Structure formats: structure tokens, C-alpha cells
Amino acid sequence: MNATVHPNTTKLFRVRKTVFKMLTKRGYAISESDLNMTLDAFVRDYCDAEGQPVLNNITISARRINGDDDNDRVYVFFIRGVDKKINGKEFEAKLKQAAADHIKRVILVFGGDLTSDAKKKLSTYSSPDMIVEGFIEDELVVDITEHELVPDHQLMTPEEKTYLLKQYGLEERQLPRIQKHDPIARYFGAQKGQVFRIVRKSETAGKYVTYRIVDS
Known about the structure:
GO molecular function, one term: DNA-directed RNA polymerase activity
CATH topology of the largest domain: Dna-directed Rna Polymerases I, Ii, And Iii 27 Kd Polypeptide, Chain: A, domain 1
Helix content: 25-40%
Number of domains: 2
Domain RNA polymerase subunit H/Rpb5 C-terminal: 142-214
Strand order of the largest sheet: 1-2-4-6
Largest sheet: 4 strands, mixed
Organism: Blastocystis sp. subtype 1 (strain ATCC 50177 / NandII)
Strand content: 15-25%
CATH superfamily of the largest domain: RNA polymerase, Rpb5, N-terminal domain
Pfam families: RNA_pol_Rpb5_C, RNA_pol_Rpb5_N
Distance between the termini: 46 Å
Main location: nucleus
Shape: globular
């Protein structure tokens, strides 16, 4: 069956699988069935008679593990526009619905380029109450954290950050920086002021740990 699947469908299947992995690493509850879904099952459950994905059916909603706030959820919408151009109309209603649902974070995955008007609209929706992130499908075809040259990145909790600074007698400005738009920072949805613990392999020590704070 896989040999007859349209390439765009296969691509979206891979992108959605990467999103599930990304959400798991961010601390959201994702089922094993979603993480291990096959292409055949994706086509059977989420595609129309012509084998094209029904975008509204592949929307993801997940709750953060061990979260005390029932609204600490994420919505992931997959957006594809006409002629691979996205002007904003495709996602405005979805963002308004997420805001009405008091969702704390929304991830939009675009199957095309955003027009300048769409980029302006997107920037107006992100706020302290609801963080809005945007990815292009091409950025999520593979999971960048699984590349052999990418060390293990762990986003620290506020308590861990406070302990780190106190333990070493440091101020935030003394920590090395990682930009908020860095691919790894975006993968984890990191915000300014958060700190990554980065674990690298070492031939002599086995592993060594460094820290980087997210900058704007």
C-alpha cells in the first residue's frame, strides 16, 4: 500500500510523527499508538478517498504531564494554503478558538510560505496567555534532536535554574547564550530566560555538561 501513497501524504505523516516526538520531549502526554503509528494506519484513519490527509482530522491536542493547570495544553494545527501560499485566513479562526478554549500554547505547521500579511497576523496572536509558534513542514520532516552530532538538550525547570545559579554563584548574564530562534530552542519551545542543560559525550570523562540561557 505504501508504494501508492502520494508523496505529500507521506511527508505530512513524517512531519506529524516528528511533532509527536517533539511534544513528548516537551513534557506532554502522547500515546504510544500515536508515536508508533504506521503510514498505512495514517492513510486509513486520516485520509480521504483520494489518499489526501483531511487536515482538520489530524489536529493534535495534548496535556502537559504532571501539570496542575487543566488549561496547560497545546493545540497543533496543520495548515496548507492555495498554491502553497498562506495568507492568514487559514489559521485565524483556529487561533481564536484556541484563545476561547484558554489554551496556553499553539503550534502551527505550515505546508507553504506565509505571505507578509500572514506573518503580521501571526505575530499579533502570541501573548503571555497563549504562546503561538510557527513551523514550516520542511523543518519537521526529520527530528533534529536525533542527529548524531546534536548533543542531548534538557530544558531546566525554574527551580533547577535557581539552584544552578546559586550553586555556582552566577548571574544570568554570565551564562553562555542560545538564541530563541535557534533550531533547538524552537524545537523545545524555549522562551527567553530559560536555561538548557547540554550533555555532550567525552572520550575522557564519559560526558560533560554545559549550560546556555535563552536570549531573544
